[in-house]
């Protein structure tokens, strides 16, 4: 089993802890702390004042919180003076802990049993944006089990290029870790149970209560590709027509909707595939053997739905959150080698003749969110290495996309307006335009499935 899936928070997180929950009459949960380490959580929407709520030196020895943003411990000891506390924290490389943020977990080392007022009983829902890659000490799971939590967050984490690798809690009474792994769970059978037993852990399958703290380990995973739906049956789609200066060579189906098929200039000798239209107005060069129009109505329905799915795909790509890179190269990516991930620019993007290299594996995904135009200069080449595939590269363009003479382009263009190819430009990918696609002696080929 891959080691990165099964790390022990004990190596990172000092010792261990937990709590039991009781409901106070005033509508809050209580931290019922036992002697030793307690792992608890603030599921409220407001921060906990550490000194005010956890400052009884006769009962509490230390309080610890893990800052996932800085990968640094926050530390508080009620018996220490402010000066001594600040010096100790500085010497150890800690921060002085003054508050516990909403949805954060924390450790309390208690010298004797005590009850401390806790968060509101209606927990703040945990969302994917609360979680960073690495260890996250959390305090709100909305009363879900780790399995349910992974199911709730799975799609949004995946869209952000992340995934849960493991979840941990501490059973203070038995002084044992409780453990859950989505990867082991997915293998079925007794794989997860056998691992838990072999390691001396306890199963982590009960709901996380209002005052529970817990660890989630989050790792980068490949981002999910943009869903094309039925648009994936087409190599070129547009809403306002496809012009062409022959002869182009197109492999794959093409279509337009809602505009009439009269606005498709590509001829049958230029295409290995079918031309779909919403009516019977296609003329081509006199031969219509490659054309499927309406009637029958099924052809119109097919291309209508494909264009609708083109819009859905555009929105999917545009709506991806938590980019890995923002404003890279101030929009000029020429000469760069780009790893898989989500890239976002508020500006246009330029690719000069220096080209760009996309380096990654066969299942890796690149999504480029471009706030204005995509300009690919003459002779620019998009080079794929390491097994990267054109079908997994998505160029979402808020403006127009223009490819210069003899440009060699890879990927799927999702343009809000025009896609224009100059003489001799080649594309291994797809051209989707919400206005017009213009061709001029080009080669456009469906990406390998």
Describe this structure in words.
There is one protein chain. The protein is of the alpha/beta class and 449 residues long. The protein folds into 2 domains: 3-220, no CATH class; 229-445, no CATH class. It is built from 6 helices and 37 strands. Strands 16, 18, 19, 20, 21, 22, 23, 25, 28, 31, 33, 35 and 37 form a 13-stranded parallel beta sheet that branches. Helix 2 (82-92) links the parallel strand 6 (72-76) and strand 7 (95-96).
- Characterize the largest beta sheet: strand count, sense, and whether it forms a barrel: 13 strands, parallel
Distance between the termini: 30 Å
Write down how many β-strands occur, each being a DSSP E stretch of 2 or more residues.
37
Beta-strand content: 35-45%
How many separate structural domains? 2
Oligomerization status of the protein chains: single chain
Q: What is the count of helical runs? A: 6
User: How many whole angstroms does the radius of gyration measure?
Assistant: 29 Å
The percentage helix is 10-25%
Could you give a short description of this structure?
By secondary structure, the protein is α/β, with parallel strands linked by helices. The chain is built from six helices and 37 strands.
SSE topology:
Blueprint: E1 20-23, E2 28-33, E3 36-42, E4 48-49, H1 50-54, E5 60-67, E6 72-76, H2 82-92, E7 95-96, E8 99-100, E9 104-110, E10 114-120, E11 134-138, H3 146-159, E12 162-171, E13 176-180, H4 182-186, H5 191-199, E14 202-203, E15 214-220, E16 234-238, E17 242-245, E18 249-251, E19 253-256, E20 271-272, E21 275-276, E22 291-292, H6 297-319, E23 325-326, E24 337-338, E25 341-345, E26 349-351, E27 356-359, E28 366-370, E29 374-376, E30 382-385, E31 393-397, E32 401-403, E33 408-415, E34 419-421, E35 426-433, E36 437-440, E37 443-445
Parallel strand pairs: 6-7, 13-14, 16-19, 16-35, 17-36, 18-20, 18-37, 19-21, 21-22, 23-25, 24-27, 25-28, 26-29, 27-30, 28-31, 29-32, 31-33, 32-34, 33-35, 34-36, 35-37
Antiparallel strand pairs: 1-2, 2-10, 3-9, 4-8, 5-6, 5-9, 11-15, 12-13, 12-15
């Amino acid at each position: 089993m891959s080691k990165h899936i099964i790390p022990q928070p004990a190596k990172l997180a000092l010792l261990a802890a937990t709590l039991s929950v009781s409901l106070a009459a005033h509508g809050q949960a209580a931290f019922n702390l036992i002697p030793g380490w307690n792992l608890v959580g603030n599921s409220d929407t407001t921060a906990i004042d550490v000194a005010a709520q956890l400052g009884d030196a006769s009962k509490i020895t230390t309080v610890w919180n893990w800052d996932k943003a800085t990968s640094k411990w926050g530390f508080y000891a009620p018996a220490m003076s402010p000066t001594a506390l600040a010096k100790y924290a500085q010497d150890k490389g800690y921060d002085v802990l003054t508050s516990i943020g909403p949805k954060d977990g924390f450790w309390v080392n208690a010298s004797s049993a005590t009850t401390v007022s806790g968060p509101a009983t209606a927990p703040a829902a945990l969302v994917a944006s609360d979680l960073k890659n690495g260890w996250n000490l959390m305090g709100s799971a909305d009363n879900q089990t780790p399995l349910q939590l992974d199911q709730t967050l799975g799609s949004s984490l995946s869209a952000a290029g992340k995934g849960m690798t493991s979840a941990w809690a501490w059973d203070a009474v038995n002084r044992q870790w409780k453990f859950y792994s989505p990867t082991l769970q997915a293998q079925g059978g007794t794989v997860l149970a056998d691992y838990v037993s072999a390691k001396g852990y306890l199963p982590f399958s009960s709901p996380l209560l209002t005052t529970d703290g817990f660890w989630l380990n989050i790792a980068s995973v490949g981002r999910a590709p943009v869903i094309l739906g039925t648009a994936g049956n087409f190599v070129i789609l547009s809403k306002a027509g496809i012009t062409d200066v022959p002869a182009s060579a197109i492999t794959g189906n093409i279509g337009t909707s809602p505009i009439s098929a009269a606005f498709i200039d590509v001829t049958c000798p230029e295409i290995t595939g079918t031309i779909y239209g919403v009516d019977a107005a296609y003329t081509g060069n006199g031969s219509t053997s490659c054309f499927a129009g309406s009637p029958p109505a099924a052809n119109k329905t097919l291309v209508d739905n494909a264009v609708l799915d083109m819009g859905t795909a555009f929105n999917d790509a545009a709506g991806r959150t938590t980019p890995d890179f923002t404003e890279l190269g101030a929009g000029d990516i020429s000469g760069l080698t780009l790893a898989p991930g989500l890239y976002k620019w508020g500006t246009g993007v330029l690719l000069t003749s220096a080209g760009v290299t996309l380096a990654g594996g066969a299942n890796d995904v690149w999504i480029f969110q471009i706030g204005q135009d995509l300009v690919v200069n003459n002779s620019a080449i998009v080079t794929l290495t390491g097994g990267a595939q054109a079908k997994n590269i998505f160029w979402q363009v808020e403006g127009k996309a223009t490819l210069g003479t003899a440009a060699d382009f890879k990927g799927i263009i999702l343009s809000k307006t025009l896609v224009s190819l100059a003489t001799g430009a080649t594309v291994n990918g797809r051209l989707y335009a919400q206005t017009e696609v213009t061709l001029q002696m080009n080669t456009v080929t469906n990406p390998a499935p």
